Amino acid sequence: MARTVRGANLLITGAAGGMGRMYAERAVAEGAASVVLWDRAAAALARTADELGQQAKGRTRVRSYVVDVAEPGAIAKAAHKVRRDHGTPDVLINNAGIVRGNAYFWETDSGDDVRPTMLVNALAPMYVAREFLPAMIARGRPARIVNIGSAAGTLANPRMAVYAASKAALNGWSDSLRLELAQAGHRHVTVTTVTPSYIATGMFQGARGPILAPVLEPEYVVERVWRAMLAGRPLLELPASVRLSRSLRAILPTRAFDRVVGDGFGVYRSMERFTGRD
């Protein structure tokens, strides 16, 4: 893919605000042909679409669809409309995600916490990608899929068992998909898995960045993700200490890792003051 998304069609989930909106702003600034925004927050999505449309000044078609990605049927219906009205995306950014509560696993609610977290974080990216992958493969031109995972999916952490499970599932599926595409000879479609630590978007309000892993600024993350996406980079870990933690996890005995990284670096205490978005 070129150094920008100029002339490309993008679809971004969780695009009403936060980093989803920032990806859309970047696409409009670079002259994308179309930017399709998905989110379940109808009012915020409408405002974002209107403001981006003004920013685009007719150079980029900005369209929004109210979609709850926790509902597979809603994904299928919205995907049909996108294919009909805009064609197949050249770039798909699976950005939508949720985190619920600050509780131990046995204190969580299976209906209000477990199920929606797994649906939005783990299953929705699979359903969304499945809707567009066949056409991405068939047309033979460069395409990108970006899956926003989490460092929590590579490193266990108290008080976020369900979130960690959902992101571990996403990380595993995303990298497996990358390998399958390459093995099947579809190298024009690349998959980038992003595993950041905490980001200052409000989603993890109150969480404390461990030693060597400060809370990341969203602008920095968007810039790094964008560059990785354009380059077709397989994995982006932010900050670099995420890679260090994975390496130590492979080397150290479990109890030693708990003491050195979990307790010593403060990883296992990072969610104690978590409040999240209001």
UniProtKB/TrEMBL annotation:
Q: Pfam families in the record, alphabetically? A: adh_short
> What are the entry keywords?
Oxidoreductase
User: Which Gene3D superfamilies does the entry link to?
Assistant: NAD(P)-binding Rossmann-like Domain
A single GO molecular function term of this UniProt record: oxidoreductase activity, acting on the CH-OH group of donors, NAD or NADP as acceptor
Q: Does the keyword Zinc apply?
A: no
Q: Which InterPro entries match?
A: NAD(P)-bd_dom_sf, Sc_DH/Rdtase_CS, SDR_fam
**Matching PROSITE patterns, A to Z?**
ADH_SHORT
By sequence similarity, the record places it as follows:
Belongs to the short-chain dehydrogenases/reductases (SDR) family.
Which superkingdom, per the lineage? Answer: Bacteria
Q: What is this protein called?
A: SDR family NAD(P)-dependent oxidoreductase
